[in-house]
Amino acid sequence: MTTRSKTGNASASASTTAEPAGPPLVSLDAAIFKGVEVELEAKLGRVTLSIADLMNLRAGSVLELDLKINDRIALQLNQSVVAWGEIVAVGDNFGVRVVEVAKVA
Question: How many folded domains does the chain comprise?
Answer without folding.
Answer: 1
